[in-house]
Amino acid sequence: METLYNKQTKPLPHQESIKLGKWIGINQHEILFAVIFILIQPILIIPPWQHLQEKYRSFEHHRTETLRNSYNISVEFYNKTATLLYTEIINREEILHWVALANTTEIAQQNHARQQLYQALKETYQNLQYLDLRQLHFQLPDGTSFLRFHRPDKFGDKLFDVRYSLMWANTHKNYIFGFEEGRIYNGFRYVFPLFYENKHIGSVETSVAFPAIEKVIKLIIRGEFMLLLKKQMVMDTIFASEQDNYQPVTLNDAYVEETVAMKNHKEIPSLLLAQINRQLRPKIHEQLKAEQSFIADTRVEGKDYIATFIPISNVQQQNVGYLVAYDQNSELRELYFLFYQRYAEFGAINILIFVFFISVLRSKNHIALQNTHLNALMQDKNELMGIVAHDLKNPLSAIKGYAEELHEAADEMTLEDIRLYASKIEDSSQRMFSLISNLLDINAVESGKMKIVRQKTSLGQVLAECVARHQDRAIQKHITLEFSGTACSVETDAQLFHQIMDNLISNAIKYSPPRTRVSVQVSIVDGKIYCVVEDQGPGLSIEDQAKLFGKFTRLTPIPTAGEHSTGLGLFIVKKLVDTLKGKIWCESQLGQGSRFIVQLCCCMD
Question: How far is it, in rounded angstroms, from Cα 468 to Cα 143?
Fold first, then answer.
């Protein structure tokens, strides 16, 4: 019996092989999956890396273009001011007469003309200081300095060799403006040729320093700004006695900055700015050589900073330096964090596939549900893309059509026709800009990236500014726009509140017929603030009110002057009000106008 028992309980050879085979088979699969996992893991970095590069390029383009546009606006602002100065004050008989008398070889007559010209414009020059115009400089036709109002005792030096703008204006007898090197200061110069009795008698120049340009830029965008100039260019042009006007910068040894501008850094303290520059220095060396727009970031004292660089050209279209904007900003760090997060997510997914491959295969129902969800998302995306494409198609077609007509018939058009077409192109571009801006606002709100900066805000002041900003449009439509209410302050985000009220006032004007009234009121009741925008428009039906704050909603009322509507304005308003933890609703009846009420809490005074 023992022999039989032992014989029966001992595993047979083929049974051992089966067990061993199963054990080997499982491990082979695991090894295979492990090999696949190891091979796939490096590949998974490609999609998030590509996404990071696309976001980085988009972010860089946005920042550099914003800085470039702000710079151009600032230069153009002083272009308008200089033109006004020339037209209204310089280009007059009594001024041109003294400049004409200067065109003589008699020293006494030149000195007399110089004295008379100085006395005639002395007060004007003093007043120019309030506009940040620091120079008023007259030259003879051959480029000889005749009268520098900032240095009246320094004249007679030949300037054509170092001042291309003067040579060009006096040679071509035409106006020129832009950045240019100078023997005393570098600046943004505006040079006008002068004529007396149909004879060219010289030129007049006014200029502004970089701090003046910076002041205007700061009205558009925030940050600290620095104008880097090529050191060699400055040393080759400026008087030796004036070289102390420039100091080296820690960013790069090949660049300098005006001493006056260096002392004006207030947004970022000078010591902190120097520390930021020292950390950026090795990162930007090669990019500065390329003379292209770019951005660079660093982290100092636990805070993230971004420096935006755009090359600056002189009147000869030569790159002479960089305009640099510094800003405390963590968006790039967030992009890198998102990249690592996505790569980690892809890696985790890969591990889950490796570990649970068999169970995933058996989860067909789950996959089917996921596919249904994905299809629904795709359908939403396609619907959104269809709406956006439809709303962008018309203005794009209009721009294309007007541009083609301008291209084909510009020679035959009058200036008025060209302005009309340019106006239509501008209107179509504004429609596209409004739609894209609304989409970006929606994305910021829905993604939770909308940054709230709460501070004590005077609602009366904000509403008065909103009303003032829309007065011109109201007047164009013969609509009375008025504001009344109680002075009060509240802890809120002033920019978002601006955007909310701007949308509501704009909508009220858009849908109101001529010779009606739009009123904006603010009041305090039981510790709550009520901001009301009331119009005398067509009113809203119950059906319209039910879908009033929906996305891409088209309501029954039609803009009274053919204005464009994206169907996003009130949706954004509702989201912004929710973000500020307020409430918004509408009271309206058909034919009796509408009242939009925004309720805020926490009244401060």
Answer: 47
The reply to whether domains 60-205 and 212-333 share a CATH topology is yes
Evaluate whether the domain defined by 212-333 bears CATH number 2.100.10: no
Q: With a cut of 70, which residues of the chain have pLDDT below it?
A: 1-35, 37, 41, 343, 346-347, 350-370, 373-374, 376-395, 397-398, 424, 427-428, 430-450, 551-554, 556, 560-568, 602-605
Q: What is the CATH number of domain 363-446?
A: 1.10.287.130
User: Which top CATH class is 60-205?
Assistant: alpha beta
Query: How far is the CA of 100 from the CAs of 25, 108, 427, in angstroms?
Result: 104, 14, 47
CB 353 within 8 A of CB 41: no
Q: Write out the two tokens for 535.
A: 């119009």
Per-domain residue ranges of the chain:
60-205, 212-333, 363-446, 455-600
Locate 473 and state its tokens: 């449009």
* Whole-prediction pTM: 0.51
d(CA 169, CA 575): 55
CA distance 132 to 208: 6
In the CATH hierarchy, which fold is given to the domain comprising 455-600?
Heat Shock Protein 90 (3.30.565)
The span from the CA of 371 to the CA of 452, in Å, is: 37
479-503: per-residue pLDDT in tens? 998 988 877 888 888 888 888 888 8
HEC letters along 430-471: HHHHHHHHHHHHHHHHHCCCCCCCCEEEEHHHHHHHHHHHHH
